[in-house]
Amino acid sequence: MKKAVLASLLAAFGVAGTAAAAELNIYSARHYQTDEQLYGDFTKQTGIKINRIEAKEDELLERIRNEGANSPADIFITVDASRLAKADELGIFEPVKSEALEARIPAHLRAPNWFSYSTRARVIVYNPELVKAEQVQTYEQLADPALKGKVCTRSGSHPYNLSLGAALIKHNGAEAAAKWAEGLVANFARAPKGGDTDQIRAVAAGECGVAIANSYYLARLMNSPREEDQRAVASIQAVWPNQQSWGTHINVSGAGMLKHAPNKEAAVKFLEYLASDSAQAYFANGNNEWPVVPTVKVENAALTKLGEFKADTLPIGELADTVAEAQRIFDRAGYR
Ligand code: FE2
Questions:
Q1: Integer Cα distance of 273 and 40 in angstroms
Q2: Could you tell me the distance, in angstroms and rounded to a whole number, from the CA of residue 136 to the centre of ligand 1?
Q3: How far is the CA of 196 from the centre of ligand 1 (A)?
Q4: CA 85 to ligand 1 center in whole angstroms
């Protein structure tokens, strides 16, 4: 008797379990320390199990395209507006209409088919023994002949620089952007190599006078307990570029729901969850970035120290319009 009740109860749970055991499949090109908490909390709140596939952005896009209508992927997460735009151009996203997301995420950080969840700034770092502060207050100044032999950046074909180029075209026009790229290349201390952290280290070492880097690389060094990182940070200064004009160029991490998502309801819930206070803090702080929801506070010593700045308010989805042009301009200028 007892056994039979238990069995039927289990059966009932089994059935309910199947209905409630909603799942969500995330393809992510982002991986950070706080991700376990980020995804774990969503499952705790909703009972929806998350399956994650993490790989490089191009591999994931290739996979989504190959899987086509049979793709199990519900959500695609990646970094950089131009990469999100590229994914969007492939037609993989389905637009999501959500009052919660519209209320929480500022309009300029939403694109028609995807949402931004954290921001990073492209900052200027310089060595005060090699260049003066007033020489490096804007991106435009990096092309000034006064900085000949002083400038370092990573490759011009990297999405971070292409997005910056796209913003320069939007604000100053293609002709000015082309002149800028030529001037920048003429000022190089060395041919572009390495990542943003390598540029910061080279500035600290005096190999370069000035460089461009994403804010989270700088914040990572600032928060690092390693003595050599602290020494590097002590030898450089950081600038929020273009505070007197169009503001510092920002980029984003973002996500969207996929057109063939088998779990659309769960996918929308997840996109909304990412804009919640706790998720915003995990998502942004996991990589020393800023939350997109303005009321969310992040406890991060480096970000607090870097302080506030005027950010470019160009709609993030519009950067994509000029990325291809930025690539052509950079190619012509020999910015590789
Ligand atoms: Fe990066």
A1: 12
A2: 22
A3: 8
A4: 17
Mention the CATH class of domain 2-119+250-300.
alpha beta
CA of 212 to the centre of ligand 1 (A): 12
- Check residue 272 and give left, alpha or beta (phi > 0: left; psi -120 to 50: alpha): alpha
Between the CA of 307 and the centroid of ligand 1 the distance, in Å, is 20
242-276 pLDDT, tens per residue?
Answer: 999 999 999 999 999 999 999 999 999 999 999 99
Q: How many CB atoms lie within 10 A of CB 89?
A: 12
CB atoms within 10 A of CB 133: 10
Alpha-carbon distance of 155 to 192, in angstroms, equals: 5
Q: What is the DSSP letter of 141?
A: G
Distance of CA 194 from the midpoint of ligand 1 (Å): 12
Tokens at residue 91, please? 């037609």
Contact between 334 and 183 (Cβ < 8 Å): no
Contact 126, 239 (CB under 8 A): yes
pLDDT of residue 163: 96
**Span from the CA of 7 to the centroid of ligand 1 (angstroms):** 53
CATH code for the structural domain at 121-248+312-333: 3.40.190.10
List pLDDT tens digits, range 166-179.
999 999 999 999 99
Q: What's the pLDDT tens digit per position in 74-123?
A: 999 999 998 998 899 999 999 999 999 999 999 999 999 999 999 999 99
- Cα-flanking dihedrals φ and ψ of residue 252, to 5°? -140, 165
Q: Ligand 1 mean position to 77 CA, how many Å?
A: 14
User: How do the domains of the chain map onto residue ranges?
Assistant: 2-119+250-300, 121-248+312-333
Cα of 18 vs centre of ligand 1, distance in Å, is: 40
Q: Which residue's entry shows tokens 């939403």? A: 110
